Structures are given as structure tokens and as C-alpha cells.
Amino acid sequence: MKTLLETVHNKALFLWKKENLLNESITISAAPLTVKEAIGTPDSTDFPIQQGKEKLMEALFRGEKGQAFTNTYGNYTGSLRAVSELPLNNNFNRAIFISTLNAVTRSLNMSDHTIHCRNDGPKKCSKLVFETIRRQFGRCRITLIGFQPALAEALNAKTDIRLIDLDPENIGQRKRGVLVEGRDSTADAIDWCDVLLVTGTTLANGTIDMFMTEKPVMFYGTTISGGAALMGWNRFCPQSA
Predict the structure, then answer these.
(1) Contact predicate 232/241, CB 8 Å
(2) pTM for this one?
(3) CA dist 48 to 108, 136, 146, 165, 166, Å?
(4) How would CATH label the architecture of 121-236?
(5) Residue 232 phi, psi (nearest 5)
(6) What is the pLDDT of residues 196-239, one digit of tens each?
(7) Which of 24, 32, 122, 194 would be a feasible disulfide site paired with 73, CB 3.0-4.6 Å?
(8) Domain ranges of the chain
């Protein structure tokens, strides 16, 4: 049975072949951004990227940019064919593929909001998230997958939430007023909630299949922009560029 990442990869390869991109002499480059380049200077300092635990990989394709969060980063240059042939068995290769996919789908006008918001963008985003979810699903209990400080704080002020994160330094801690739970609590937190709000980074770290159950899912962030466009997934990322 194919994983969701494999399905996204197959759809991307089909698209690149259809658009005759594999045979073009096009270079894809990705490089880790500094904190300031990635998110500017928000008024809080507890975002994972500020702690040095993640960086944004950025791909440039035909003048369009696509990004992906990852904890394994570095530089890469190659053709779309070379990217399509990378084995998706580690975070580095997955980040190359996903950031490339985001840049390519943006260049084809299939996706947008592929560049992470900066400065007060996370705060503005957090002011919109609850109303967006309520409009779509009604007032409900939410399980947040991935520690995004502004979203956690905003949702906790409006409704009952649970927070799942894979960072062992966060698990068991109370962040922005919310207890951070780990992988062992995932199934229970999914069963408890009415809606899952899931970081798009799950596509890059290979955990996305864990969260695609019968419960409604809304993804957030830039990492999943291209994947969401290909798969028709619900995505929230209003302040990104």
C-alpha cells in the first residue's frame, strides 16, 4: 500500500512529465535560510526554527520559490529528473523534493502562499485560525499536530485543544498554556478531537499518514502547499507570500 508521500511523488512526476519539464535544462537549488531570512523578527522566540531545531529549505524554479521545513538541511542543485529520482527515505531528500514541488506548482499557477510569513505574520495568522475552523466545522475540539506557538495560544483561548509534538524537549512541558503530548498519545488525541489541525511538515518528515483518519483535517503552513494542490487537501496559510 502506497504512503501518501509516494502518492504525492507519483502525481508530481506525472505532472512534470506532462509539462515536459524533465527534459529541460532547468536547475533546482535549495539552501537553508537563516532565522531572519525565514521568518523575520516576530515578537516571540519559541518557534522551532528560532531554537535551531528546524530550517527552511528553499527551492528556486523559473523565478518562483518554494520552501519546506526540515531538521536535516544543506545545499542541492540538480535537474527535475534528478530530484524525481531521489529516494524519499530521509528528511534531506524529502525536503529537496517537497520544496522543489512547491516551487514548480507555484510556477504553474497551481499553488500559492509558498513562502513563510515574516515578522507579525504568525500573530495575524493566529487571529484568523479559530474563526476559519468554526466556519468550516462549527465550534469543536481541536488536536493541533506540531508546536506552532501562535496557533496553540490562540486556539487554547477559544476552545478545548490538545497538542502533539515529536520534539522530546517539548513533550511533557506546558507551552503557551497547553500541555505538549508525544507520539504515544497521538491515537487518543485523534479519537478525542473533532478536527485535526496538522502541520504540513508531516509530509516532509514522513509522518503524515498517522493523521489521515476519518476525522476532518486542515493542514497549515507552506511546506504542504504543492502537495495540498495535487491532492486537494484543505490548507490554512493566510499570511504567507
Answers:
(1) no
(2) 0.88
(3) 31, 28, 10, 11, 11
(4) 3-Layer(aba) Sandwich (3.40)
(5) 75, 30
(6) 999 999 999 999 999 999 999 999 999 999 999 999 999 999 88
(7) 32
(8) 4-107, 121-236
